[in-house]
Amino acid sequence: VWIFGYGSLVWRPGFEFTSRKVGFIRGYSRRFWQGDTFHRGSERMPGRVVTLLEDCGACTWGVAYEVRGEQIAASLQYLNMREAVLGGYDTKLVKFHPQEKDAEEPILALVYIATPQNPSYLGPASEEDIAAQIIVSSGCAGHNIEYLLRLADFMRYFCPQAEDKHLFSIEEALISILPCLYYTEESLEET
């Protein structure tokens, strides 16, 4: 079984796997439209994490993990709790295209996608509003800023040829806001 990750799974799968491949799926765009009140946020301050939006002309880069034997049941049990129960995601089957030049046919992979029907779905907002929400959110897996920056780093280092305007626009908006926060904190410490 192959499992495709396009958010925190790219750097922290949390389950044992046999192999991993960087690549993409077609027909979806990655969007910070899913709320998170557990891993990267709280009930009071929901974080923003990614989901996939059907988009026939787009592709989303990430990592596919191959799980075999006993790894299958353990990984699916873990992911159903992490993504479906706590995250509000549904499971779909997609065609994954490995980045490798000598890759054969696409690989069928499971992917978790949050839909507008789930209670944590936040939907669209401006890049600046999403960045502002990410800055103030933190959950049991860490700060929401870490989630955004790790995802941007993954894209930059493992998929430099790929374009993810939404992701990098939010990163840029966050960086433009942060100096103001640091300046304010330093000013308060000096007084």
From TrEMBL:
Matches recorded under Gene3D superfamilies: Gamma-glutamyl cyclotransferase-like (3.10.490.10)
Protein name: Gamma-glutamylcyclotransferase
Enzyme Commission number, as recorded: 4.3.2.7
Catalysed reactions, as listed in the record: glutathione = L-cysteinylglycine + 5-oxo-L-proline
Coiled coil: none
Subcellular location: Cytoplasm, Cytosol; Golgi apparatus, trans-Golgi network
Organism of this sequence: Alca torda (Razorbill)
Biological function: Catalyzes the cleavage of glutathione into 5-oxo-L-proline and a Cys-Gly dipeptide. Acts specifically on glutathione, but not on other gamma-glutamyl peptides. Glutathione depletion is an important factor for apoptosis initiation and execution. Acts as a pro-apoptotic component of the unfolded protein response pathway by mediating the pro-apoptotic effects of the ATF4-ATF3-DDIT3/CHOP cascade.
GO cellular component: cytosol; Golgi apparatus
Domain of life: Eukaryota
GO MF terms, alphabetically ordered: gamma-glutamylcyclotransferase activity; glutathione specific gamma-glutamylcyclotransferase activity; transferase activity
Alphabetized InterPro entries for the sequence: ChaC, GGCT-like, GGCT-like_sf
The family this protein is said to belong to: Belongs to the gamma-glutamylcyclotransferase family. ChaC subfamily.
Name of the top EC class for this enzyme: lyase
Pfam families on file: ChaC
Keyword Magnesium in record: no
GO biological process entries: apoptotic process; glutathione catabolic process; nervous system development; Notch signaling pathway; response to unfolded protein
Record's keyword annotation contains Lyase: yes
Keyword line: Apoptosis, Cytoplasm, Golgi apparatus, Lyase, Neurogenesis, Notch signaling pathway, Transferase, Unfolded protein response
